[in-house]
Known about the structure:
There is one protein chain. The chain contains twelve helices and 28 strands. By secondary structure, it is an alpha+beta fold. It folds into three domains: 179 residues, 3-Layer(bba) Sandwich (Glucose Oxidase, domain 1); 241 residues, Zn peptidases (Aminopeptidase), CATH 3.40.630.10; 90 residues, Pdz3 Domain (Roll). It has an eight-stranded mixed sheet, sandwiched between helices. A six-stranded mixed sheet has the order 4-11-10-9-6-12. Strands 22, 23, 24, 25, 26 and 27 form a six-stranded antiparallel sheet that branches. Helix 5 crosses helix 9 and helix 7 crosses helix 9. The chain is globular and about 85 Å long. The two termini are 44 Å apart.
Amino acid sequence: xxxxxxxxxxxxxxxxxNYLAHGDRAYTVGRxxxxxxxxxxxxxxxAPIVFAGYGIVAPGENKEDAYDxxxxxxxxxxxxxxxxFLPEDLEGSARQKLSRYANLRYKAMVARDRGARGxxxxxxxxxxxKNRLVPLKLDGSxxxxxxxxxxxxxxxxAAWFDEAGKSLEAVQQTLDTxxxxxxxxxxxxxxxxxxxxxxxxxxxxxxxxxxRAAAPAQEAIVIGAHVDHLGRGxxxxxxxxxxxxxxxxxxxxxxxxxxxxxxxxxxxxAAQKASGRFAPKRDLVFAAWxxxxxxxxxxRHFVQEYQVRRKPASSDSSIETGVRRKPAVATEKRIVxxxxxxxxxxxxxxxxxxxxxxxxxxxxxxxxxxxxxxxxVTIQEDGFIPTxxxxxxxxxxxxxxxxxxxxxxYHTPRDIPTTLxxxxxxxxxxxxxLVARGLALRDEAPTFVASxxxxxxxxxxxxxxxxxxxxxxxxESTKGVRLTGVAEKGPAQRAxxxxxxxxxxxxxxxxxxxxxxVYAMERLRVGKPAKVVVLRSGKRLELTITPGSxx
Length: 551
């Protein structure tokens, strides 16, 4: 079969047993409150409520510069109420500093690590928000937290403040200046809760084809483009105007253009081989990825299957993919590079090539293959990009991703064929075809290099730290972070970590999901040993890892 099927969590909905009461006052789910999608479920023992401002804890250059909403506040065994987002009136560097720590998952992790019974989030009357309750939708990342996380309306929270002799709006106004208001209790009446969430599981499928090497080969090159889009924009990432809500998002540039280019490349190289003008030394795998808009789900699944098959114990051709027998493409072959095409239909001044820092060959290859075309090219080194190439990059595979730039029609119903530059897209396809052809004919495979810088939003300390772990990013069933591999001679391998280990603690921080892991890495310092606790074959094992540097 040309299809590679996979299961994924497409959404979450309320179950039948959701209950919230403050003392003898019961609230209506969907109006007064509702769970947050990554919340723990089940019955929560009644507990009092304390208020902790915006719930942000952010380090500073010194003690005075740090921001700690929990300062001198004991939240153990209590519900913690925090404001959504971050202080509204902050601007410039002050706002940028706190924005990294305003994510709801981070706030939940902070509350959990301080022993809170659960986290309550309120938007607050001073915050501009389309939805006063946190929408019940997935955020594109797997994993939940071990504490309940709920959202309550402004009216509900304001009543709790009134009982404590406080004003929600007045306190929020003070906090919005950047000043920290000491936390306080919101009365003594306990809050009781039951949370029932039902995850909606669906099936997706990648479409895979292969052009075999001229002689049996052990290496392959992947040329891919995502085939999914937003439908009518119900998933939450639509940028449609109010008068466009519910209309079909056609996705001409994002990403019919990329799929068309990928198919043109496949046709060109197949014709070259059939005519005897092309004798590839490596297989060429052509892939139409599904689930990119939901978080790179299809390409991530392909890479994880590939990593499993690359293990010696998984080389048998009869191994199951989890749905049927394996697809026609033998993904156990060593993938030496991934070429990605995402939004290549709006060529104007220049073609943007991303992931160039992932291999030392890319600059010379780009110059050589572009010589007959003369495209204006902008190079971006970073391999951490929000497209399918990132699935391969995090597995230590060199990537090169083509992109013709953002535009006002992105993720709207206005992304239609008449807005495309068809001639420009053909030029991009020709360029990437020449790159693919060159890679298939090379004597030596490209070598992988981890980029020295990461995408926007990462703090400099985070950029420097390197552990050499390859997490299973799409694993929702594991409590912790399961590793699909470790980099050769990297810090993780030297520490004794292995593929299959589940990291449950790092640098003293409990790890339940990939978010916890990313934030825990911010505690690490290059060259300073840290404790890492893993589960291996059901046994708890404590190791010491010494972080390396990306720079």
